[in-house]
Amino acid sequence: MHVSHLAFTNVRTFRHLELDLGPGIHVIAGENAQGKSNLLDAVQMLATTRTLRSGADLDLITWDALRDDPLPAARMEATVETRQGRRLLEIAVIAGETMPGVRATRASRRLRVNGIARRASDLVGQLRVVMFSADDLSIIDGPPVNRRRYMDITISQLDPAYLRALQRYARVLEQRNSLLRRLAERRGRQDELDFWDDELAEAGAIIVGARAEAIRRLARDAATTYASLAATETEDLTVCYEPRLPDDLPEATREHDFAERFRAALGRERTEDIRRGMTRWGPHRDDVQLLIGGHTASVSASRGQQRTAALALRLAEIELSTARTGDPPVLLLDDILSELDPGRRQRVLSVAYAVDQVLITTPDADHPSREELPGARRYTLAGGVITEQRED
Predict the structure, then answer these.
(1) Are 65 and 10 in contact (CB under 8 A)?
(2) Fold held by 140-326
(3) How many DSSP H helices and E strands does the chain contain?
């Protein structure tokens, strides 16, 4: 799998950008605030429909477009080549209409695959990426929501049923919590929860099962990779999925009747849920535990150990994606190579030759060097304009 062409219009720092790519390694050099991370984040969004940056969709649109264009819009396009053929992915973020002189405060999305309007669930997975960035440390030392996000982005690119279950679960959870709050105020009947419990358990069972299986595979490969990356250390990396489920359910995630058992557990916990006005159990509260040498990585591990653990997880993600689909993902390396010691940097670069395409951003045009990456195509990015460097 690789991206053969990218086109951005009014996307953050890019008023207009077109870039022809192909299989192989592409190194994009530029000083800070020139758009390197914006470029990779836009590719990530074309793959997952989600940006890794905080902020609203409206923030994707350049300030110039918001100020000058009558109907401001950011547009991203990628032509993707896979073993199954070519596909064109398009995302448009369009600012809402406002009165003259008033800045828009909201935006809507339009998504297309091969020119046909699609839902987000139809676009996700058409392009699969694994992105390494400095923010990966937040998977290790951040709150549980970061690790749930990591699971969701990773698995959704590989399993359309998982993504549909996630979307359904979110809608049902909102309805169930709303009903719980009404019941806490003595408005309504408890049996009104029956329908939402059924729906939550069915979608939740799909999510929990997929997470358990994915983390099992990631844990195995990440442990092996961590050991090779941290050759001078004796501690092992352990990755454990921790589903937020009552009673003995965490041990039953692979049972054929798990959805029904989850449904029964929700019924048993109903009184307390009503008292608190919230659903206390389910995938929306899951976590992943990471241990180094048997101790919680976020608390006891050094910064170097945490960085190595995050790197091992990403490398395991590549193996999972390739094993599930038979087609390696596109690798996105956002300004991380300069932060790695030579051994870890070489381990990451060796993976670059095992996939079809790698996009690397760097603040230093000489690192990684031409000796480290012979044959890589190189570009300079400045002020939102990208120029390919030609060797003499």
Answers:
(1) yes
(2) Glutathione S-transferase Yfyf (Class Pi); Chain A, domain 2 (1.20.1050)
(3) 12, 15
Residues 6+ apart with CB under 8 A from 282: 169, 173, 200, 204, 244, 245
Pairing relation of β-strands 107-113 and 85-95? antiparallel
Place of tokens 């150990």: 305
| Residue 33 confidence (pLDDT) | 84
Domain extent listing, the chain: 140-326
Distance from the Cα of residue 185 to its chain's centroid: 38
Question: Residue for token digits 């359309």?
Answer: 160
Quick one: DSSP state of residue 100?
Answer: T
Torsion of CA 117, 120, 124, 129, to 10 degrees: 110
Q: Which residues pair with 361 in a beta bridge?
A: 28, 334
pLDDT tens per residue, range 225-276: 999 887 666 789 999 999 999 877 877 777 788 999 999 999 999 999 999 9
Please say if the pLDDT value at position 49 is more than 90: yes
Residue 108, both tokens = 């809507």
